[in-house]
Amino acid sequence: MATNILMPALSPTMEEGKLAKWLVKEGDTVKSGTILAEIETDKATMEFEAVDEGKIGKILVAEGTEGVKVNAPIAILLDEGEKADAVPAAAAAPKADIPAAMKDIAAAVKAEAAPATAAAPAAKASATRVFASPLAKRIAAAKGIDIGALAGTGPRGRIVKSDVENAKPGAAKPAAGAAPAVVGGGIPGVALLPDARLLYPAGSYEEIPHDNMRKAIAKRLTSAKTLIPHYYLTVDCNLNALMAVREKMNAAAPKGKDKIPAYKLSVNDFIMKASAMALMKHPDVNASWTDTAILKHKDADVGVAVALDFGLITPIIFKAQTKGLVEISNEVKELAGLAKAKKLKPSQYEGGGFSVSNLGMYGIKNFTSIINPPQSCIIAVGAGEERPVVVNGKIEIATVMTVTMSADHRVVDGGTGAKFLATLKQFLEEPASMLL
Amino acid sequence: MADTYDVIVVGGGPGGYVCAIRCAQLGLKTAVVERDRMGGICLNWGCIPTKALLRSSEIWHLLHRLGEYGMSADNFKFDIEKIVARSRGVSKQLSDGVGFLMKKHKIAVIPGEAKLAGKGKLTVTKDGNTNELAAKNIVLATGARVRTLPGLEPDGKLVWTYREAMVPTMFPKSLLVVGSGAIGIEFASFYKTLGADVTVVEVLDRVMPVEDEEISAMAAKAFTKQGMKLKLGTTVTELKRGNDNVTCTLKAKDGKTEQVTVDRVILAMGIVGNVENIGLEAAGIKVDRTHIVAGKYGETGVDGVWAIGDLVGGPWLAHKAMHEGVIVAEKIAGVKGVHPLNTANVAGCTYCWPQVASVGLTEAKAKETGRKIKVGKFPFIGNGKAIALGEADGLIKTVFDAQTGELLGAHMIGTEVTELIQGYVIAKTGELTDQELAHTIFPHPTLSEMMHEAVIAADGAALHI
User: Are A138 and B405 a contacting pair at CB < 8 A?
Assistant: First the structure.
């Protein structure tokens, strides 16, 4: 019976390739191991060997053809005595040649990718069955571990007791020893990235299983960066006046019995306050996108990114427009403390209208942030440093800080964003103008 | 030039021959070196022939109970030589069967004694001739033998090991068995059932000391009722061999001594690994108290040399050795996802009368782990099939983690419990909890229903008691 010779997958991630050269012609007899063609992928050119014996009936894809999909018929193989025009019975439905395991992975990746593309608020995902022992399930339930997020080490990747016992509450780890998967993607036309483990020899790295925070960061930021049309605006702010005010205010802080001042304002506290005030002046920026409407927030709820040893979280100063610098300063310290102790409640970091991310303390001059949905804008704040500035035609030295705002173009158009940023710059350069 | 193999297994016992079959299945060129008969102790001098003997004694026991079943017969007798002959026949059949399996899998069986001879090399000596073989991997599976103590050496005539006890040419009227582990108690049971006056000496304070204490106590009661004399917390200090009897000096824990004169003595004080003369020291393989120190996949620390079975460590069971053989074969062949053996899931079976079987932690050991446990028990007297069989003595006992429902251990005594225990082994291996077991429908009427009852009994929900 005539059979189709299918475009081979020469690597686990190959989806299509170029049929570079035929090494057999119609009428040639081939046997298992005969090199049929050279196939070119994006990485290499490889020889494609025959698996079955027979005669090449018809070449379906001419050499030099690019973009031949894996498993597309490329030639017809005839049995002894068959005519050249014999049509393979299964020609209409070429059988997939991908190993079953790879197909399973593809399905799993699709299921995994679903919530990421659904964006926030994430849809409840993964209808795929979790294979876990009853004991593992019970221990996981008791410990509050999401068993679906674990990778099993039991037979066929089944999750067993030891997998759950080794997992920290809320922890997840990648499939150890399982066939490497592909990650990302799920959007039509977007290529899946190969699992990094495919590319490094086993043992050359240490695997750090994802905890929940890492998973959340990966999921949210991938969604945000791929689904939100970001654009960026940058301004330099002269902080001379702010620094002077801050010094005076800190010097004036009442001291308690222990001689510790009641507050110590940071530049970031001023940025939080200035952001809140600028948001009140430009409510179009203090907004969230939904499919049917833009939500304009009434209060200036300003998030502040807190770097942790184990990740990152953005707690929120709610109604920051109503709060004074000292109140903001103390609240930021309290929230940062809670974040480091993993004690933040969702109500303390969910929502918000705007975020501040400050890497100035690390000497970063300028950078761009990824928008923190459902918010529409985030400012990336660099270090306040002495730089030469031109004032009235003369070069002077001033403490200058670069601020770059990332904005969601669906909500905030360029002009709106620019006006907001100009106000923010004014408030930072002339802190007293916030009182106006 | 030396013959070259992918794998040479040293020892054709249950661990070795199973390892060889698995290697061959995985496409490896495999040989087994065996100094005696294929099948090792298990098939030739252990598990199998003793089961044949015990079957004879079981039938003998039933013959004495014919009246219970509404039958009568008289003038029945046994011929020890014929019983032994049947047992040998069973062994031969199975050993030949292993030989056939070797042929079927194209595994070379090389007779002789093997010794490691440098990296990837092995010498095999047979009748004074020594040949060299080469293999990428060598699996040591030389097994174990009876432990002897000074003054308690076997002589093959009056003082037996399992080997002589299995092929008696006369039936001893009286017998002293030293050691109440599986081997000792099986022989004690066999000889007792056939009418010998049997005394069992155990150094610890209970029979079958690895079993759950409650099971141990029930076994002791059953043995005593049969007329077996149990000397617990007792050691044998001297064996004075006469012409056709042995006078044994027993010393109890309290220091009291007594003398017992018996026809024969059977030594069953445990085993020691066969670590000698296989070149371990020269190869740099670590040995601890007569057993090779091996990794969880049978690695010896020397590249290309693996070890399995009794040679490695306990429990000293053929099925544990077989599974290790499979693990090592798959490791050698590079099979992915090979799991190490979990001894907590290896069941032990003793084919005395009544039978004893268990898996996992005893109640006491489970308590020692500090977790909250719950225990379920169900007696044979509550089971219809047991009563119909006329075997209403016995108990099934389960030990669960009270919080997670994990089955920590299961312990049984009574008719056919050695065939039942696998149900709990599957439950443990598959990590089923008390809930899945409670929801499992066991067929009626079977002895296995007691396994269900013993599970729900842990929650006070047993139905038939």
Answer: yes
